[in-house]
Amino acid sequence: MKKILFVCHGNICRSPMAEFVMRELVRRAGLAEEIAVESKACRTDEIGSDTHPGTQRVLRANGIPFSRREAGQITGADYGAYDVIVAMDSENMRDLMRLTGNDPQKTCHLLMSFAGERRDVADPWYTGDFDATYRDVLRGCRALLDKIRSMR
Q: According to its UniProt record, which residues of this chain constitute the active site (predicted)?
C-alpha cells in the first residue's frame, strides 16, 4: 500500500483539505485499497483541534466527504512510515528538511510541484480565501494521483 502524508503549519486548514480531497479522488479511482492518505502539522499551534470551519465549508460545497478529526504533529518516525510526504508551502518544506535531515529518501515534495508549479498553496488562515486554496489543493492532488497511477 502506498502511504501519503500531507503537512501544513497547523493541520486544520490546508493539509486536512488535501487529505479529504485526495481520499475522495482515490476512492473515485477505485484505489482505496492501494493508497492510504493522512495529514499532520509541522507545528504544535493547533494540536487536537478539528478541521477549520472554512475548510469544512469548502469541502461540503464541493461534495467532498470529511469527518471529525484532531490535528496531530509529524514526527521523525513518520518519515520512514510514508512513501510520499507533501508540504503545502516552502516553510513546511524547511520544517521537513530539518526533521528528516534534508530528506535523503527524497520523499518530501511541495504539493504544487506535482502540477508543474514551484509555488506555495496560500494559507487561508491568513488569506481567508478557502476557495482559492481548494482549487490549488484539487489541482495538486489530481496531479499527484496521476503521477502515482503512471508509476503502477
A: 8 (nucleophile), 14, 123 (proton donor)
User: Average pLDDT in the 124-136 region?
Assistant: 97
Coil vs helix vs strand at 109: strand
pLDDT tens by residue, 25-69: 999 999 999 999 999 999 998 999 999 999 999 999 999 999 999
pLDDT per residue over 7-26, tens digit each? 999 999 999 999 999 999 99
Using the predicted structure, report yes or no on whether residue 152 has a pLDDT greater than 80: no
Cα separation, 103 vs 84, in Å, equals 11
Residue pair 44/75 in contact by the 8 Å Cβ criterion: no
Domain layout of the chain by residue ranges: 2-150
- What CATH number should be reported for the domain whose range is 2-150? 3.40.50.2300
Strands 108-110, 35-41: pairing is unpaired
Beta bridge partners of 109: 86
Exactly one of 14, 23, 108, 136 is catalytic; which is it? 14
Phi/psi region, residue 63 (left: phi>0; alpha: psi -120 to 50; beta: rest), is: left
